[in-house]
Amino acid sequence: MRSNTKVRYGLRAMIQIGMESDKGILQKDIAKKQEISNKYLDQIIAPLKAEGLIEKAQNTHAGYILSHPAHKITAYDIYKAFEPELSIVPCAPEEGKCHRQNMCAAVHFWSGLNQKIKEYFESQTLQQLIDIQTQLTPREEQAAQE
Question: What's the angle, vertex CA 20, arms to CA 79 and CA 7, rounded to 5?
Fold first, then answer.
């Protein structure tokens, strides 16, 4: 299973915004720090705003901030900004999509795996990811950000 680029970059952008949500961060700074082209980041920021996960900061910095506390945003919330539902195969997430639903053991297998992946996404909060990123960020870079 591969996640699409928008989901992957959206998660990275949200981590960066969350790390600097107290003061806000400009899109060009997200692009630079996350090594994402500013033009492509437009396609990432718009769904995050539409989903209500981020908003414009109301200060002189005028960057982006989180719309909710990081501990209330899950990886699945971010995923849903770009994809309607988690589905590793077309017949897994919704009953009735496959005419073999009631006679196919494979559908049950894929549905179970799909549910486990969804549960994992839902169990991971943005705050947990920010905490991990903070530990991974070199101390000099953290000092420069403050």
Answer: 15
Angle subtended at Cα 105 by Cα 101 and Cα 108, rounded to the nearest 5 degrees: 70
Domain 5-85+125-145 sits in CATH at 1.10.10.10
Strands (E), the chain: 54-56, 64-66
Dihedrals φ, ψ of 54, to 5°? -135, 165
- Kindly report, residue by residue over 13-29, the tens digit of the pLDDT: 999 999 998 889 999 99
Letter string b/e over residues 108-146, b meaning 16 or more CB atoms within 10 A of that residue's CB: eebbeebeebbeebeebbbbebbeeeeeeeeeeeeeeee
Residues sharing a CB contact under 8 Å with residue 27, sequence separation 6 or more, in sequence order: 38, 41, 42, 45, 63, 64
Q: What is the pLDDT of residues 102-135, one digit of tens each?
A: 788 888 888 889 899 999 999 999 999 999 999 9
The secondary element (H helix, E strand) that includes residue 113 is helix 105-123
Domain range summary for the chain, segments of one domain joined by +: 5-85+125-145
